[in-house]
Design a protein that fits this description.
Layout lengths: L1 E2 L29 E5 L2 E4 H18 L3 H10 L3 H22 L5 H15 L2 H12 L6 H17 L7 H18 L2 E2 L12 H6 L11 E2 L3
Antiparallel strand pairs: 1-5, 2-3, 2-4
Length: about 220
């Protein structure tokens, strides 16, 4: 029979409600930049490249034009979601640096192997991440690295993400990292505010509970 398996990630959707404000200034002019994080530019061209990777992957897995148009409709906020995820990844990297934690290639391989087993193989896992989170197959390992990094940061802080206190501890560290990076987001892509931006929360795998595809199980 088929049985749905669920992998409950440390940073599940429950933490979103308790996430404090991660603010960004927007007063500086940065021509050609979608955002500036820690003095480093995320250019509009880089952002568009990421979005095109997802669109190309979506087209490759759809059978006809109607299905492709449906996929686009379901991910209409892809550009903004992608930029917010790119910025949030930088914030997490800074929080990890502050916490003196790192992620190895072996860590990523082990997590990927476990998830592939649950999803019925590499293709199944890639499809889940593409359809649910807008992550292109070529970015999957990078995304899993972020998931592990988030778990390690929470662990280093002694933050139990199943409790309000643990969530507050984690987001306090993220807020501090955000302030250190002095994030400047191009207003056309919205404001840098995790508490108010549902798009960030809904489209970032390490911020929610992930449900891989159903896998065949013997009765």
């Amino acid at each position: 029979m088929h049985r749905r398996r669920r992998t409950a990630f440390v940073l599940s959707a429950a933490i979103v409600a308790a996430a404090p404000l991660l603010t960004a200034c927007g007063s500086e002019a940065h021509p050609g930049a979608a955002a500036v994080v820690g003095g480093q530019r995320i250019t509009v061209a880089q952002l568009e490249g990421r979005v095109n990777e997802v669109r190309s992957a979506q087209r490759a897995v759809t059978k006809d034009e109607a299905q492709y148009e449906q996929a686009i409709a379901k991910s209409g906020s892809l550009t903004r979601d992608t930029l917010h995820s790119m910025v949030l990844d930088h914030v997490l990297d800074r929080a990890a640096k502050d916490a003196h934690v790192s992620v190895t290639r072996k860590d990523v391989q082990q997590l990927r192997g476990s998830l592939e087993q649950q999803a019925g193989g590499a293709h199944g896992l890639e499809t889940v991440w593409l359809q649910q989170y807008g992550v292109a197959p070529s970015r999957l390992d990078e995304n899993l690295r972020t998931e592990i990094e988030a778990q390690k940061v929470a662990a280093s802080l002694g933050a139990d993400m199943n409790t309000a206190e643990g969530k507050a501890t984690f987001w306090k560290a993220m807020s501090q990292a955000s302030k250190e990076l002095r994030i400047d987001l191009n207003p056309r892509y919205g404001a840098w505010d995790v508490e108010k931006s549902g798009r960030v929360d809904a489209k970032t795998p390490w911020l929610r509970e992930v449900t891989p595809a159903e896998t065949p199980q013997s009765a």
